UniProtKB/TrEMBL annotation:
<dbReference type="InterPro" id="IPR000182">
    <property type="entry name" value="GNAT_dom"/>
</dbReference>
<keyword id="KW-0808">Transferase</keyword>
<dbReference type="GO" id="GO:0033816">
    <property type="term" value="F:diaminobutyrate acetyltransferase activity"/>
</dbReference>
<keyword id="KW-0012">Acyltransferase</keyword>
<dbReference type="InterPro" id="IPR016181">
    <property type="entry name" value="Acyl_CoA_acyltransferase"/>
</dbReference>
<dbReference type="Pfam" id="PF00583">
    <property type="entry name" value="Acetyltransf_1"/>
</dbReference>
<comment type="pathway">
    <text>Amine and polyamine biosynthesis; ectoine biosynthesis; L-ectoine from L-aspartate 4-semialdehyde: step 2/3.</text>
</comment>
<comment type="similarity">
    <text>Belongs to the acetyltransferase family. EctA subfamily.</text>
</comment>
<comment type="function">
    <text>Catalyzes the acetylation of L-2,4-diaminobutyrate (DABA) to gamma-N-acetyl-alpha,gamma-diaminobutyric acid (ADABA) with acetyl coenzyme A.</text>
</comment>
<feature type="domain" description="N-acetyltransferase">
    <location>
        <begin position="18"/>
        <end position="176"/>
    </location>
</feature>
<protein>
    <recommendedName>
        <fullName>L-2,4-diaminobutyric acid acetyltransferase</fullName>
        <ecNumber>2.3.1.178</ecNumber>
    </recommendedName>
</protein>
<dbReference type="InterPro" id="IPR012772">
    <property type="entry name" value="Ectoine_EctA"/>
</dbReference>
């Protein structure tokens, strides 16, 4: 039986193919653009995104629609905590506005957790007003059957400039 759109008698469109892979240095330019267009991420210099893609490509991913030669429509940047190498810290997640609602962010997180060896925890920080990130990481924890511990990592006073506090979400342990 074909899946059908609820409002029509036409067959539902198949979900687009999303290719998830390690970023290349050249992807840093698109990551910078995606971060800027998100309007919610703390924007870093283009130079920082280029370095990130070069130096932390093994712990980061990009998503592309259709083919690996297409430009990224999303990224997740991460790194291993130096004092806890079995913990993957997710620094930023961004998805192009036109690709939102396709589950790209969750698929990137899952792919990243599966490709980074020997991790059993994931950490990220989320500001209290970021409901979308809260849902994304809570769903990730649920898919892994892992608990989430939440504590304030950096206060608003520490961050300054009317920045909200950053709440640490520590997910795990989970099976690698």
């Amino acid at each position: 039986m074909l899946a059908r759109d609820e409002d029509t008698d036409h067959p539902a469109s198949p979900p687009p193919v999303v290719v998830i892979s390690a970023p290349t240095v050249d992807d840093g330019v698109e990551c910078s653009r995606l971060a800027a267009e998100s309007k919610v991420l703390d924007l870093n210099s283009r130079y920082a995104y280029l370095l990130w893609c070069r130096d932390f490509g093994a712990t980061s991913v990009v998503a592309r629609l259709g083919h690996e030669d297409n430009p990224p429509i999303g990224f997740v940047t991460g790194y291993r905590r130096p004092d806890a190498p079995s913990t993957l810290v997710v620094w930023q997640v961004a998805v192009d506005a036109e690709a939102r609602g396709l589950g790209v962010a969750g698929r990137m997180l899952d792919a990243l957790a599966e490709r980074v060896p020997d991790i059993d925890h994931l950490e990220t920080t989320i500001t209290p007003d970021n409901e979308a990130s809260e849902r994304l990481f809570t769903a990730f924890a649920e898919r892994r059957g892992a608990p989430v511990a939440r504590t304030e990592l950096f206060s608003a006073d520490q961050l300054g400039a009317d920045h909200e506090p950053e709440i640490l979400h520590r997910i795990g342990p989970f099976a690698a």
